[in-house]
Amino acid sequence: MIVVAVIAVLASLAYYNYSRYAFRARRADGREILLRLAAAEERSFTNQNAYTTDIAGVPPGGLGLDATSSGGHYTVTVTWGTSGDPNTFVLTAKPVAGDVQSNDACAWLRIDNVGNKTWTGNTTNGSCW
Is pTM, for the whole model, over 0.85? Predict the structure, then answer.
């Protein structure tokens, strides 16, 4: 009986550590799409002298990209900065509702036009960025 109890404790610790690792691994999916869309926004700014809020629209008015990450764990929205200025943008990656990643401690990931990287949750499971 003691052996079974020890195995149960070890299994619960292993599952906990694996789930924390899995959150960090899937978080890379959100970071990747944010960086890819930020680069596309910079190309748009170079060509149009303004950022766009249209991710899926055909260039030159939009970016022509998918707003869902390649792993399907995040969706991205883009807004102009706090002043509504088309010379600034904020990209926000939100975990897909109902996806296991929606329980991640970092919650939403953000990047803006000057490269500020933020998140809305906490960093209890490694660095969010």
Answer: no
